[in-house]
Fold this protein.
Amino acid sequence: MSVSKIICFAVGAMLAATAAPADEISIVSNILGPEGPLYIDGNLYYVGWVSNTLSKWDGKTTTVLNHTPGCGHNGLALTKQKTFLLACTEEHGAILELDLTGKQLRRWDADKNGKPFDGGINDIVVTANGGAYATVFGPYADLPTSVVGKILYLAPGSEKWVEVASGLNYANGIGVSPD
């Protein structure tokens, strides 16, 4: 089979796969800016960045666990201690640590050098060893005049976030391999 026939077959197969209707079920509606879904012990946790909320759906009822005005709840990650790390994406970003009921345990507004998270925290992920990475997005209210996006790291057992990468234009989602 020629290369062009293989490519046409592959593209045709992809189009056929995407054209098939999906059996979708809506379990929650009217969420303003849903982000960061986590399924833990039979409960779905998710944030709404427009509504500044962390919510839990237990299969029947939705409960708002946290409402922090001016946060812009965005990324959500579960720590080894069974707490949440939540990214506040508003211009003057923050990272919140919350218990599973939504109670704030800790708030970081700056890195270990006291540099504020200006540009907002967009996403956050916890590593297999218990460390965490977060992205600082960048200004979005006005046209940017500089590249301020970066990646922050919280080492296991540490209480200070450290900048580990910079010069990223609008750093967004972040992920790490399971190992």
User: Anything to note?
Assistant: The chain has one helix and 13 strands. Confidence is low (pLDDT under 50) at residues 1-20. The helical segments are 3-19.
